[in-house]
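thread from #wetlab-drylab

HS: before we spend reagent money on co-crystallization trials with magnesium ion, can we at least see a predicted complex? here's what I'd submit
DV: go for it
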Amino acid sequence: MIRRAWAVARKDMLIEYHSRVALNQVIPFALAVLLTFGFALDTRDQLLAEIAPGLFWVVVLFSSLYLIARSFRVERENAAMEGLVLYGIDPMAIFLGKLAALAVQMLVLEAVAAAGIVILFNPPVGSLGLLAISALAATLAIGSIGLVYGALSSSEHSGESLLPLLVIPVLAPIVISAAKCWSDAESAGAGIYDPWLKIVSIFGAVFLAVGAAGFGPAMED
Amino acid sequence: MIRRAWAVARKDMLIEYHSRVALNQVIPFALAVLLTFGFALDTRDQLLAEIAPGLFWVVVLFSSLYLIARSFRVERENAAMEGLVLYGIDPMAIFLGKLAALAVQMLVLEAVAAAGIVILFNPPVGSLGLLAISALAATLAIGSIGLVYGALSSSEHSGESLLPLLVIPVLAPIVISAAKCWSDAESAGAGIYDPWLKIVSIFGAVFLAVGAAGFGPAMED
Amino acid sequence: MPADDSVSFSSVTVTLAGFPALLNLSLEVAAGETVYLRGPNGAGKTTLLRTLAGLEKATRGSARVLGVGLPGGERSLRALAGMMGTRSHLYEDLTVAENLDLARRLLAVSSSRIDDAAELFGVRGRLWRQKVASLSAGQKRRVALAGLVAKNPRLWLLDEPHSSLDAAGRDLLDKLIAEATKRGAIAFVATHEAEAGRAGGRVVEMVGGTVRPAASGGGGDSGPEGLE
Amino acid sequence: MPADDSVSFSSVTVTLAGFPALLNLSLEVAAGETVYLRGPNGAGKTTLLRTLAGLEKATRGSARVLGVGLPGGERSLRALAGMMGTRSHLYEDLTVAENLDLARRLLAVSSSRIDDAAELFGVRGRLWRQKVASLSAGQKRRVALAGLVAKNPRLWLLDEPHSSLDAAGRDLLDKLIAEATKRGAIAFVATHEAEAGRAGGRVVEMVGGTVRPAASGGGGDSGPEGLE
Amino acid sequence: MTSTLVRKAVGVTSLVLVAATVVMGLFVTPPDVVQGNLARLLYVHPPVAWVAYLAYGVTSIASGLYLWRPTRSLKWDRIAVASAEVGVVFTGLTLVTGSIWGRPAWGVWWTWDARLTSTAILFVLYLGYLALRRIPLSAETRAKRSAVAALIAFIDVPIVHESVVWWRTLHQGATVATLGANTKVHGIMAWTLLLGFVAFTMVYIWMAMLRYRVETMAAEIESTQLEAWEAERMAEAGAPDAAIGRLLESGARAPKEVPADQGATPK
Ligand code: HEM
Ligand SMILES: Nc1ncnc2c1ncn2[C@@H]1O[C@H](COP(=O)(O)OP(=O)(O)OP(=O)(O)O)[C@@H](O)[C@H]1O
Ligand SMILES: Nc1ncnc2c1ncn2[C@@H]1O[C@H](COP(=O)(O)OP(=O)(O)OP(=O)(O)O)[C@@H](O)[C@H]1O
Ligand SMILES: [Mg+2]
Ligand SMILES: [Mg+2]
């Protein structure tokens, strides 16, 4: 199963390598959104610095939605997902493979967006370790839930704009907790015993489990 | 030409009638985003009321991106746009038809989102007329530019997440001006001589013209 | 002007993403002719049809199609041509009736004409109010053909028109083409069927993006051992 | 156990969005048989193939396919079946080589096997490093068939396999099917070609979601006047 | 027949109980010391919120029963959607009554309190669930997919409930559950609250039954449709190619209907 999951992940990475959708489209999009926000919301630096953590996660969530949609669009084009299914492989392998490829893209996105936020909005950055762990947990949660709902809402027609509607309310708590995590990270005292980190990690684990359990039934109708 | 534009608009409205993508997917999505924002950004009411106009237009812009993407997805499915082109109709008719259908959907979206914003964020609402005119101008601008870039980025593959990247920087000024318009509308004195309204209207007219001029070349490669 | 009814390509090259899908292709077709395009996969048949429809642009060379000069007159050509490719041009979320109603509005023809065309291809019954998304491959094809017949173009461009159609449908389509060409239309039919052209019409063998010199006779499409 | 090589449907009904695409279909096929499915558009041929592939579920009735019980055994059936429908299952953004490499990894076969299959269908040359998006219809079909041959399934499910293929390709495919069935595989071929089954194999006429009672003889797919 | 009777009985009972709640709430119970008559919303707002939980709970259980193979039946799917739809209505009522209460109590219609926000998110979540159900799919596929979605969506219910504890909030904490040690809610007020809860639960059951009836009727229509189609398919099988054959026999009609001079001309 690991071998097959790897084959799926490799394929998704190759598609990204050829099409550069994440690199040339989604990441610049995230930066464009950050800039627009900076302008549209207000121009008072103090305020922007304060809302920066929340903004970061909101932007990451939105951009990830495009990555998730893309991840399913390539499967839909020539009914390619049906092709995968016809190899008789376990849905879990497809889930893990797609999640791995998605998580890699999301982590790159997060790194760039974080750099953008820090440069543009100048929020204090405290414990990097805390940030990294919370980001990893949130990434897995967003990826898992995104894939499950992507599978749930994937139909030949009219499914694509359903994904954000389904995903955002479910992920709202984790995005908020992750933002709080960043806010906490600013205060020097915070460490890996931060309560928000605990919440994010629990959410991460739960959503990963939910994703792994739900993807199969969602996909194989 | 008007007859053909109407036929195109009618078709897009019928598709919406059958699939309810705008109504059941995009509009609730906008509400979900408002909620997430309100929660993720901060919890001080005063602040939220201040940024509400900006938030409104950001949310409208993002949701509209889904409407625009959808508007092109239905054309791509069986190369339907090619079919339209093969009737030998003027691209202008396609542009006007699609813009009309899109604008109707966007206006409904804006009405719902505005109601949500007013209830949730409690910003002062001043001159309704000013708001309505600026919203109309901004809608036409967003719709026109969205359609042109939609046509530009509509390739068989990997075009869908390019649209937001292209559109957002171009529309940033109008979104900001429309937000300022709202802020101005709050002060009772403002009327239709508001300078921001002038800017929004000019942008609206210019982008509409740019759209009408650019759609043909963008579509007919 | 008689030249207005004919098709004439002189050394047309069409490059797609840098690849010469058509290469120095020259061809003369008179009014009323049916041309069967044959040749191995990748020979350029589809590209030729798309060029004739005004959907691809000639990169080199020039052509005159029904009095329209190429490159340049693509848009006016599109109105004259009726194309039936591998993609159906239908809206999956609309019903059969709504799809054909759109065609009626865009063609500005009477609705009885649309009804007749739909009747002809047997899509007026249960299917009429079904979404296209729920049709079988051949049923979709029939809807698309109904639209084409309603347009009644002067230039029929058919890419493997028989695919997905059942025998009755194939028969019907062949008759329609024969009737249309009898009235002066020109038909291009890309096909891999061995029997194409047996009943009349000209067979043009394509290979490598151009017309194979007549010398080698038939059998250009058949593999090493020939079919049948 | 000999029953494990055969296909047996008893009164299978498959509803798609509430429509009985297959209706009380019963069918027995023995190992090594080639079954040509014929019948008018909408008869249910594609649905039967998809059910055999484990892609649609029987709503009523039951079936046994290569020892797997339906409904219920869909997933294990998928691994045994090789399906070639109207959609190619290829990733347009990957090259031919990469698509087939994915197949190799998922099938866990040797890469020489993939190379041979690609060679056989003539997609190892210029096309090998091309993205699938830039191939012609028939070329895509050839890539998909190469993957199918590499899988070498026990159950071949081919939906209009000749469409888009040139004569050489058709010939090759026919040979491969003959070879596979000779070794005990079962092949189902949905086709509208009049000559299907002439060279051997069983012709099953479908209509209205079921097998047409044998009484009426051949010609069920042909229109009143027959083709040819 | 009996089910119609039951439905009617439940309907009447629920109306009577709601009327009783109104009477008790408005006229019998005393006004609150701090909030005055506003506090009377106590008999509506919490019960409505709890009934929403209840509705989603039923949806989740029904969804789980659908997903579990031994009990898989479309009946559960119908119960799930019926209950979810009523749940959305009650969540909407929670939001509305809460807002009405919040205006005088807190001075605003809305504030970014954790409980309020999570309740609104709950509302959107199930709107998403209902939107998912509108994707054209076969009944089984739809049931399966929406069951998965329903189970995930339910995660938000405990979050709403615990939100007052997890986030320090403006909203009332658990007042009622700790009734014994409570000084705010007592005596007649507690009884009225209980009555309100029973009344709105009955309303829920009534609405869910009506909704379930609509679903079963839709399923029945679908099955009659299926029968009609089966008959049609059988006729097709009996009279092969009838439609097409008839058309072709009517001879040269096809070309006659396609006059060459008509059709598209360039503009
Ligand atoms: C839009 C605004 C509001 C919303 C969305 C809302 C939502 C809710 C919800 C979901 C519950 C059930 C909590 C649970 O037991 O898990 C609840 C209970 C309750 N609400 Fe609200 N509420 C709102 C405004 C208010 C206001 C303004 C008040 C009074 C000042 C209030 C007082 C109460 C009380 C007393 C309970 C019962 C608490 C308990 O005993 O558990 N609510 N509300
Ligand atoms: N998703 C669907 N919803 C409703 N009806 C459907 C759906 N898919 C197929 N059908 C119907 O089921 C019937 C059988 O379809 P199927 O695709 O199996 O036919 P077929 O024999 O392959 O036809 P063709 O020769 O046109 O390919 C058709 O009448 C079709 O309209
Ligand atoms: N977008 C593209 N980019 C690069 N090459 C292309 C593109 N589209 C087509 N080609 C190449 O152009 C050639 C001609 O393609 P075309 O589709 O016209 O062939 P065809 O004769 O219709 O083949 P088939 O019988 O397979 O349908 C093929 O070799 C194909 O690989
Ligand atoms: Mg071709
Ligand atoms: Mg079929």
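DV: Residues 167-182 of chain C form the longest helix (16 residues).
HS: ok that's useful, forwarding to the group
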